[in-house]
TrEMBL record:
Gene3D superfamilies: Chorismate lyase-like (3.40.1410.10), Winged helix-like DNA-binding domain superfamily/Winged helix DNA-binding domain (1.10.10.10). Keywords: DNA-binding, Transcription, Transcription regulation. Residues 3-77 form the HTH gntR-type domain. This is GntR family transcriptional regulator. InterPro entries: Bact_HTH_transcr_reg, Chorismate_lyase_/UTRA_dom_sf, Tscrpt_reg_HTH_GntR, UTRA, WH-like_DNA-bd_sf, WH_DNA-bd_sf. Pfam families: GntR, UTRA.
Amino acid sequence: MAEPKYRELADELEAAIKSEATLLGVTLVDGAKLPTEPELAEHFQAARGTVRQALAGLAAEGLIETRGRAGTFVRRLPMLEYNVDSERPFRKDDTVSVSDTWSSVVEASGREPSQDFKFRIEPASATVAARLNIQPNDLVVVREMLRFVDDTPWSDQTTYYPYDVAKACGLDVPTDIPEGTVRRMAARGYVEHRVQHEISSRPASIDERRRFNLAPGVSVLLFRRLAVTESGTITRLTVEILPADRNVITHVTQHRTEVDQ
C-alpha cells in the first residue's frame, strides 16, 4: 500500500535536513529558514495542504519549528543515545555509576554534561506507592536531576526510594552520593538483583514544553525503572522524562552461542 503523499514529502524533507542538503537555494543546516509553503508546493508539485501536513509531522519530530510570521526554521538538535543496558542489575565489578555513564556518553560526543540536583522527602502518591509496594502517604526520599548538554535541558530524572531503604543506606540527605546510589545501597546490603524497564511516550505537558524549550508537537519519552533485590525488596523507582527530539533509547540483545552454553 502506497504511503500518503504528505508522508512521502515529509520523508524527503527529513532526509534533506539530516544530510544538510540544499533545497531551493537554502542549505538545510540548524537555524536555516525553510522556503515558504507556496515555494515548497511548487517545487514538489504538491498541494499546499499536503505540504502543511508534511511540515506538521517534521515539527512533531522536532526537526523544524515555526516562529510566527518570521517563518519556519530547521531546528535540529544532535541526538543522544540512551542505552537501556546502562540500567542493569548491580555487579560487583562495576566501576562507574549510571550517572557517570551518562556523562561519559555526552563527553564522548564532544559535548559538555551538567546537572541540577534537587532533594526532598514527601508522602508517596498512590501511583508511586503502588510501584514501590508501600502504603499511600508513606514517606519516600526523592532525588531529582535535571540534566543538561551544553547548557540545553536534556532530560529530567526523578528517583523515589522507600524511606526505610533510603535511611538505612544514607540516601536521606540533600547531598551528592559520590559512588552513586546503586553502589551505596549495595554496600549496605541492598543489592539490586533485577531492573524492570518500561518505556512509553506521550505529548509533552505545558511545563515540559517550557522546561525543555520544545517545538509544538514534540512528544516526550517516559523511561521507568523499578529495581528489586533478590529477596524481593523494591529499592527504587526511577522515572526519566526525555524529549523525543534529542534522545533515542536503544537496547542490544546478546545471544548466547552453543559454546557459551
